[in-house]
Amino acid sequence: MNPLLEISFRVPFDKIRAEDVEPAVDELLVRAQKRLEETTASKDPLLALDTMTENLDYAMAVVRHLESVATTPELRAAYNAVQPKVSAFYSGLVLNEALWKAMKSYAATDEAKALTGTMKRYLTKTIDSFKRHGADLDLEGKARLKEIDVALAEVTTKFSENVLDSTNAWELVLTEEAKLAGLPPSAVAAAKAAAEAKGVEGWRFTLQGPSYLAVMTYLDDASIREQVWRAFNLRGGAEPFNNRPLIAKILELRREKARLLGFADFADLVLDDRMAHKGERAQTFLGDLREKTEKRFREENAELEAFAGRAVEPWDVGYYAEKQRLALYDFDEEELRPYFSLDRVAAGMFEIFGRVLGIVVKEEHGVPVWDAQVKTYAIEDSGSFYADWYPRENKRGGAWMDALLPKLGLICGNLTPPVDGKPALLTHREVETIFHEFGHLLHHLLSRVEVRSLAGTSVAWDFVELPSQIMENWCWERESLDLFARHYKTGELIPAELFEKMKRAKTFRAANGQMRQLGFGYVDLALHREWSAEKGDPAAWSRPILQQFAAAPLPENYAMITGFTHLFASPVAYGAGYYSYKWAEVLDADAFTRFKREGVFSAAAGQDYREKILSKGDSQDPAELYRSFMGRDPDPRALLERAGLA
Ligand SMILES: [Zn+2]
């Protein structure tokens, strides 16, 4: 029996083979088609719609996940083979004439008019979504829209393959120990292990997160830093993995789609059902923060150049900033690593949110997984999850949460793996990443919304990072750190002096950090609102925009956006939505002021937060949810204060 055909809470990861994918998806498409006909004929098509594609959703989530964490050439081929038909099926739903008619007639019934609460919102959102997806277009318009969606799925898949492949295709093997000067022992050991794994002599560096960041932050030899920086910022920027024409294609398709649907541009289309509503409002929001950040940004850059004693290049910024941080604060982030062993961090995190949110997390054993490194857990009364934290060649980069079923999720990352028989010792940023993804996971698992389509993280994109980003605040409070940050050898807490330094260093170059994020948000909105084919190569066009937010002059061939998977790795992705990170930061900094006031372990504030935000999914307007928790609208002051910019 094909293991992808039936939903199984214990996903049989050990039994799923690449050759199962196509037959299962073909069969599930046939079944979904039948369910679609039943839905159309149903007296209550709204309720039927909510669960109509459950089996197909499940199979595709499992396959997509496996392709992300345990890919093989066969699996990738199978995934690519089914993806266009599945995408065509989904985008066909909102274009299905009979379904749209059934929905409209249902909306006109007394029963529909009497709906209240979540079901009422579901109906309104469904009708709006049909319209936004072209339900009112003529036949020709609908056909074109379908072509655009299929093309977008293909081009964006190719985009993300190019990033992965160009990342893996690059390596730097150093054979002279002297060239490693400046690197901390952990990075040297990791590079040694990476070389050994490949059967080569020396130290091997890659463009994967931990390796890249260690080189950029610590390696003394500027010419090596330059080489690595240039390779990193040219990922997907040159043949045979050239994403430049793909980005142009993606932007053109997205614009055509927006116009077809009656929107000025892609930003206005995707923001229609988000908190910001319009591209212009998002850009104004970024502009306001930029204005409040720029003065300090220029000061920081002048301070860095004064410190370095010369004009800095982009590959010098991280390096000198780290030296400057040491000089100013005598603080080396590496000093914190021994206090952050992955197992203790995870256990402490469960303990903290046990107190705050009342959850009980227990490790589960004997659950089938896709790799021996994966751990499995259950949250009492709220489902189960997988955690997969270390990088592998068959796994994509970054960190993320994904949902397989309403009560089943997973969190993945590419954290520093254990070396030399020591436990995995993390940077503080990596600890924040774990808390962040766990926040997304809780938003998914603690959801108590009865309508599947409005449950969990199915919220507006500029709201979805509130539950994740707020978690990072607990990585900065003495009380909560003391629950998990203990020296892996001695069991000691972080010394008071080190903690003070860490806090003070937090606002170090905060304006640069903020400008970097604002720059990504700006370039994203500019690409989706202003770029057009006659402006030429989008990567070259983006460079002067990003330059305004960069601490050093960017080289002519700078092509950061060709590796910008956030924007281009799927048909919509974070396209025109990158601003939402800052938007959500305003929300998270502001919302955390309640815990600052009522106590970081306050079960009362936690219960309120769980009830009014975490459990609610998209069952109410996010602005209303926020007001019900805070008693007022969000205030950007808390963000500026937290960053030391106000
Ligand atoms: Zn996130």
What does this molecule look like?
This protein is mostly helical. 57% of the residues lie in helices and 5% in strands. The protein contains 27 helices and seven strands. α1 (18-41) runs parallel beside α4 (73-93), α8 (139-169) packs antiparallel against α12 and α21 (510-529) runs antiparallel to α22. The relative contact order is 0.11. Zinc ion (ZN) is lined by residues 436, 440, 465, 468. Zinc ion (ZN) binds at residues 436, 440, 465, 468.
Protein traits:
5-stranded mixed β-sheet; two-stranded antiparallel ribbon; 646 residues; binds zinc ion; 7 strands; mainly alpha; 57% helix
Decide which structural class fits the backbone: mainly alpha
Portion in helices: 55-70%
Major sheet summary line:
5 strands, mixed
How many helices in DSSP terms? 27
**Strands, count:** 7
Mean pLDDT: 95
What oligomeric arrangement do these chains adopt?
single chain
Uncertain parts: none
The hetero molecules present are: zinc ion
Query: For the CA atoms, what is the radius of gyration?
Result: 25 Å
The gross shape turns out to be globular
What proportion of the residues form beta strands (DSSP E)?
under 5%
C-alpha termini separation? 62 Å
Strands in their spatial order, largest beta sheet:
3-4-5-7-6
